[in-house]
Amino acid sequence: xxxxxxxxxxxxxxxxxxxxxxxxxxxxxxxxxxxxxxxxxxxxxxxxxxxxxxxxxxxxxxxxxxxxxxxxxxxxxxxxxxxxxxxxxxxxxxxxxxxxxxxxxxxxxxxxxxxxxxxxxxxxxxxxxxxxxxxxxxxxxxxxxxxxxxxxxxxxxxxxxxxxxxxxxxxxxxxxxxxxxxxxxxxxxxxxxxxxxxxxxxxxxxxxxxxxxxxxxxxxxxxxxxxxxxxxxxxxxxxxxxxxxxxxxxxxxxx
Amino acid sequence: xxxxxxxxxxxxxxxxxxxxxxxxxxxxxxxxxxxxxxxxxxxxxxxxxxxxxxxxxxxxxxxxxxxxxxxxxxxxxxxxxxxxxxxxxxxxxxxxxxxxxxxxxxxxxxxxxxxxxxxxxxxxxxxxxxxxxxxxxxxxxxxxxxxxxxxxxxxxxxxxxxxxxxxxxxxxxxxxxxxxxxxxxxxxxxxxxxxxxxxxxxxxxxxxxxxxxxxxxxxxxxxxxxxxxxxxxxxxxxxxxxxxxxxxxxxxxxxxxxxxxxxxxxxxxxxxxxxxxxxxxxxxxxxxxxxxxxxxxxxxxxxxxxxxxxxxxxxxxxxxxxxxxxxxxxxxxxxxxxxxxxxxxxxxxxxxxxxxxxxxxxxxxxxxxxxxxxxxxxxxxxxxxxxxxxxxxxxxxxxxxxxxxxxxxxxxxxxxxxxxxxxxxxxxxxxxxxxxxxxxxxxxxxxxxxxxxxxxxxxxxxxxxxxxxxxxxxxxxxxxxxxxxxxxxxxxxxxxxxxxxxxxxx
Lengths: 255, 506
Ligand SMILES: Nc1ncnc2c1ncn2[C@@H]1O[C@H](COP(=O)(O)OP(=O)(O)OP(=O)(O)O)[C@@H](O)[C@H]1O
Ligand SMILES: [Mg+2]
Prior knowledge:
- The structure holds two protein chains of two kinds.
- Chain A has helices at 42-49, 72-78, 94-104, 109-122, 127-130, 140-152, 170-187, 198-204, 222-227, 232-253; strands at residues 2-9, 19-26, 31-36, 57-62, 65-66, 79-82, 158-162, 190-195, 207-212, 215-220.
- By secondary structure, chain A is an alpha/beta fold.
- Chain A is globular.
- The mean pLDDT of chain A is 92.
- Chain B is built from 21 helices and ten strands.
- The mean pLDDT of chain B is 89.
- The A-B interface holds A 47, 50, 52, 73-78, 81, 83, 85-91, 93, 100-101, 104, 132, 150 and B 109-110, 112-120, 123, 127-128, 131-132, 208.
- Magnesium ion binds at residues 42-43, 84, 162 of chain A.
């Protein structure tokens, strides 16, 4: 469970706010998509949840505990995070990148290895082919999948993902989205996922929050957004996939 | 093979070991000091700027000055310790600066990810920042290595053995073979150590990538061999070596090398194990003897009288000697064994035909024409109290006062480029160029009697004192001049001059 109460964030001592008065709640096992234009404060919001950034005001509760009263290092080890810039360690092999969190948690060696094997298989990078490679020897999409594997391996209850599937081709992407959704349901993960792709959000999310200029314009289940957009910007956002879908239908009919 | 070259190569193992040991100790300490310093500085710009500024300023100090300052701070202690301290000071800048640069260059998204997955600041530093900065830090270590090998040649000046022994002895005794051997040896050591570090770096970087590649294994075997050789080479210098019974010191010019050689030869004849530390600065060898690091060396009365006792008047040869003996013993606790018999004082010298032309026999005769004459002195003379004394005693000045390296000065007067030079009376070249020494009836020039000064600890050994005392009064001006001439003019070795003196004494 993740809950943000009246979160504000300013980088210039209150002259301007990158995030202003954001409140949201994600129940256990739910997936919330954050969507919004570039610079609207999505990444900043995510970073505050594992204390890479500290909020200027407001309260954040994760699994019933106020995170500001927790040891940040422990908190971060308990939360999976897929970074927007991927942030793989260039001097670590794929295997060691994925094993980073379990090592910090002092898992047993054999357990780490079997965990890595399983998770890398799942993201389509079998350990025997990719385990010994360095990030520089991977494509952008492969790096992104290693980033997802690194966030998932320790089976965190809470997962924060910043554009995790951005650099993937449509087929791999669709496959990974489905696979991820399966795991998320299986492990009952609580997820906040940032995306720019409304289709992705509509297909994967239990809740969608649309952000602009640091504020949440509208938040609700995909159906609600589709049926009752409360804002011009939200309308524009959902019109895009809708128009595409109807144009595709026309194309199909004309065959 | 050329005899001279052969003699030089015989010295190679000892100088190599000294140089290598100095370099490795200094580098090791430099690394252990600079990387933490760099890590500390990289944490906060408040520390970074002043710290790097201070280190850079140290770097701009002339290296010889740093050496002298370190010796002074250590209370006159010479040898490996001050040399290593000075070398470490110089190695800090490249390593610390590159550590800071390397740490700063780690991409922020990587740092954010490291922190974001739950590494604590220490883990971020050790697991992420330092490994990623390592190539840049190693580049700094390589720079420091090349600098240190080069600067270590200066350690000779403070009595630590290095390839500098070749260079400074060679420069002073005009032995170009010696200078060349020393320079090539130092350059080769720099290149080899640099390549070695580069090789180690390559191995570390390719550790995971090419476990089975044959190139990798070949490079590794070569490196392991080279490192083993170096370790053995430098370790053997740490192994217990026969401590010398006595250390003979000396300053850095021909006469000093010869007398030191003579002292060493005499002591060895009596069965002592002797070490020579030559090419030391005047101040350094004096204080080293005062604190028993050096046991015996050749000093000059005028030097102590003017430089240490700060006297400028000249009460005459005997009074000066008495004053100096008193100072050496009462003030600095050493033992003045006695005068060898010769003097090495400043004197004005001219070509004989030029002196005849001008009708000059003594400095007094020169008074009316001095303002038309061009004079040449060594690098320090016109800044010394002797020049002031000369000017004031006779009321003379010259139309031009040029400074020269000693060797060039003699050529200049011989070629009539200058009218007179400020020569040294024991210099073999006075005779070789057939120069006339002008008399000094008003005693403007201080006496410079060659005296033997012994450390208090050595003076307690009666056999040692017996050997040294047997030399007192044994070397005349003519004999010393001839010994100097063998080296400076005839191109003979120090050993040739020593055996000449030995036969002259017996
Ligand atoms: N450390 C920081 N210091 C100052 N300003 C910052 C900092 N981090 C982010 N910002 C600013 O905050 C605003 C929101 O940034 P954020 O990264 O949250 O946007 P985003 O919604 O994730 O955008 P994108 O979709 O492009 O990733 C931007 O205007 C950005 O310039
Ligand atoms: Mg972002």
